[in-house]
Each structure stands twice: as C-alpha cells, then as structure tokens.
Amino acid sequence: MHNYTITISKTAQKQLDDVPDDAAEKLIAAIRGLALHPRPAGYKKLKGRNGYRIIKGDYRILYEIFDSVLVIDVIAIGHRKNIYKYRTSR
Description:
Elements: E1 5-8, H1 10-17, H2 21-33, E2 44-45, E3 52-56, E4 59-66, E5 71-79
Parallel strand pairs: 1-5
Antiparallel strand pairs: 2-3, 3-4, 4-5
C-alpha cells in the first residue's frame, strides 16, 4: 500500500485551531493515520456530497480521497453537533 499525501483546507485548519488541545492531538494523529489507511475501520461515505468521515471522540473529520494521485484532502473538522452543517464550496 502506498502512502497518501495529506492536505488540509484553510477552513479545516482554522477549525482544528479552535479545538481544545487534548482533542486536537487525537485528531492530528487520526489525520496522519489517513496517509497509510485512507479508509480506516469505522469510516463512512457521506450522504448527499462527496467525501468520507471518521470519528474521534466527539469530533468528526470530513475528507475526500483522490486515489489516482494518492491525496487525502481534509475539508472540515468539528464537533459532532455542528460538523454536518458544513458545506463544501467545491
């Protein structure tokens, strides 16, 4: 299996900056793990839009996978009660 390159949108980076430090560390570890396993146990395809999500505690990471170029694009990070209100402009 090949390593994927991880990109994080400006929006997702700002969202990550707003997460408490203890949760942010877990989220960063999960994002790094996507480079080796872009479809980890528990991942789900998003309904009504492109992308996938993984869960870390009360937080969700929304991302897209581009297998042809081995890129993972993290598009949003947030608390479970707010994250699905986020819409991508792509």
